[in-house]
C-alpha cells in the first residue's frame, strides 16, 4: 500500500472524545470530559421548531438544493441583528458574515484566508486541542505564547513575545480550557501588537454568552481592530445544540470572499436543515433570558466546585474560571498520594490522576497535557453535564483525601 499522510498517520484521536467514549461505555461513570451541554435547546421553542422548522415542506426544500456559499441571507441577517442587539455593532450580513459547519470550520477557513503555508501563528498556552491540529494540518507553524497566570494574561504574554514575524494571533475568550476572559488591558495590548506587528487577530468567541466574573468583549467591539480581525462563533454551546453544526465567521468583506471560495471548494455549502433553527434561536428575544439563566447555573456550579475541591483533596486553583464551560485545576499535589500503579502510568500528574479517577473513582475528566505541555499537571472538568451527574461527580472528587503513598 502506498504511504498516507505522515502527520495523520501519527495523529492520535481527540482525547476528550476518547475519554467520553470510554465513559459512555460504562453507565456507572460520571462523565465530565466532553463539552456537550446538557441544557438546551430552550424548551419553550422545541415544539415550534419541530412544527415549523422540521416539517415536510422544510425538509423537501432543504434536501433538494445546495445552499449559497455564504449560507442563507436570512440567517446572516439574524446573526447581524444579534450582534447589534448584544454589542451595538453593525455588521453587513451580505459581505461580512458567512455560515459554516460549526466553529471549527470557521477556524480552518480563517487560517486559510488570512495566512499562507509556512506562516507562523501565535497560540496562547494553554490552548484548545483543535487549534494546534488545524495549524499543523494546514502547514502553518504554531508559536507558543506562554501566559503567566494573573489578571492581564495576554498583555503580559505579548510583552514577552519573541516571534515578531508571526502572521496572526489566535485567541479564545472566554477560553477552553481555563475559563479566562480577556481584560481591557489585554485588548489594548492585543490592538497595539496587531498594529505594530501587522498581525491578524483570530478571535474564537464560541463561549461569548458564558462570561461570569468579567464582561465579554469581542475584537469587533474595538473599532481599531475591525479591519484586522475575524470572529468565530457557533450555536453549539450557547443554545446547547452541538449536533446541529451551525457556526459562522465574521470578517472584513475581502476575508469573507476568500473564505467562501475555500468553503465552496471543500463542501459547496452548509446543511440547510439547521439554518432556520439557528435563525429562530438567534431572533427570539426571550432566548436572551434563557441564556442568562444557563449562565447563572454554570457560574453557581463553578462556585460549588471551587468550594468543595480544595487543597485537602489535592486541587489547587491557580486560575479561577471567569467564564466558559470548564474547570482547570492543578492536581500535582494529588499525584504523590496515588497508588504506585497510577504513578507508574504517567509522570504527568494530570494524565495519571485522570486515569485513576476514571478507573477507580468512575469520574471522567481530560488530562491537561492535551492543551499543551505547560498544563501537564492539570485536569479539565466540564461544568455543563446534567445537574445530577455534576453534583455526584464533585461529591466523589471531594471525598478524595491526601495521604501517604499507597500500593
TrEMBL record:
It comes from the Bacteria. Residues 29-396 form the Aminotransferase class I/classII large domain. Its cofactor is pyridoxal 5'-phosphate. Pfam families: Aminotran_1_2 (PF00155). One of its GO terms (biological process) is amino acid metabolic process. InterPro entries: Aminotransferase_I/II_large, AspAT/PAT-like, PyrdxlP-dep_Trfase, PyrdxlP-dep_Trfase_major. Coiled coil: none annotated. PANTHER family: ASPARTATE AMINOTRANSFERASE (PTHR46383). This is Aspartate aminotransferase. It comes from Serratia plymuthica S13.
Amino acid at each position: 500500500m502506498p504511504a498516507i499522510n505522515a502527520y495523520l498517520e501519527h495523529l492520535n484521536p481527540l482525547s476528550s472524545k476518547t475519554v467520553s467514549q470510554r465513559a459512555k461505555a460504562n453507565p456507572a461513570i460520571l462523565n465530565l470530559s466532553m463539552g456537550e451541554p446538557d441544557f438546551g435547546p430552550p424548551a419553550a421553542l422545541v415544539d415550534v421548531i419541530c412544527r415549523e422548522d422540521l416539517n415536510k415542506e422544510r425538509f423537501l426544500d432543504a434536501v433538494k438544493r445546495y445552499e449559497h456559499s455564504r449560507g442563507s441571507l436570512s440567517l446572516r441577517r439574524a446573526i447581524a441583528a444579534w450582534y447589534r442587539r448584544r454589542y451595538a455593532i453593525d455588521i453587513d450580513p451580505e459581505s461580512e458574515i458567512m455560515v459554516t459547519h460549526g466553529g471549527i470550520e470557521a477556524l480552518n477557513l480563517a487560517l486559510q484566508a488570512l495566512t499562507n503555508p509556512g506562516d507562523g501563528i501565535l497560540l496562547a498556552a494553554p490552548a484548545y486541542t483543535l487549534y494546534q491540529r488545524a495549524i499543523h494540518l494546514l502547514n502553518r507553524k504554531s508559536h507558543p505564547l506562554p501566559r503567566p497566570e494573573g489578571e492581564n494574561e495576554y498583555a503580559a504574554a505579548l510583552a514577552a513575545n519573541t516571534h515578531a514575524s508571526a502572521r496572526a494571533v489566535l485567541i479564545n475568550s472566554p477560553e477552553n480550557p481555563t475559563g479566562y476572559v480577556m481584560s481591557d488591558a489585554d485588548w489594548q495590548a492585543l490592538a497595539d501588537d496587531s498594529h505594530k506587528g501587522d498581525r491578524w487577530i483570530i478571535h474564537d468567541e464560541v463561549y461569548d454568552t458564558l462570561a461570569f466574573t468579567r464582561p465579554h468583549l469581542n475584537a469587533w467591539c474595538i473599532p481599531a481592530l475591525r479591519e484586522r480581525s475575524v470572529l468565530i462563533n457557533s450555536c453549539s454551546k450557547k443554545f446547547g445544540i452541538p449536533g446541529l453544526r451551525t457556526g459562522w465567521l465574521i470578517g472584513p468583506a475581502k476575508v469573507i470572499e476568500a473564505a467562501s471560495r475555500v468553503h465552496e471548494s471543500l463542501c459547496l455549502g452548509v446543511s440547510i436543515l439547521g439554518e432556520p433553527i439557528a435563525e429562530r434561536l438567534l431572533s427570539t428575544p426571550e432566548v436572551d433570558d434563557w441564556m442568562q439563566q444557563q449562565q447563572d447555573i454554570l457560574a453557581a456550579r463553578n462556585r460549588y466546585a471551587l468550594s468543595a475541591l480544595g487543597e485537602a483533596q489535592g486541587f489547587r486553583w491557580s486560575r479561577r474560571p471567569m467564564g466558559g464551560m470548564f474547570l482547570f485545576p492543578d492536581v500535582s499535589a494529588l499525584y504523590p498520594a496515588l497508588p504506585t500503579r497510577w504513578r507508574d502510568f504517567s509522570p504527568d500528574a494530570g494524565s495519571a490522576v485522570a486515569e485513576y479517577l476514571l478507573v477507580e473513582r468512575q469520574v471522567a475528566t481530560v488530562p491537561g497535557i492535551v492543551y499543551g505541555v505547560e498544563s501537564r499537571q492539570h485536569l479539565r472538568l466540564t461544568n455543563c453535564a446534567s445537574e445530577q451527574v455534576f453534583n455526584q461527580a464533585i461529591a466523589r472528587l471531594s471525598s478524595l483525601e491526601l495521604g501517604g503513598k499507597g500500593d
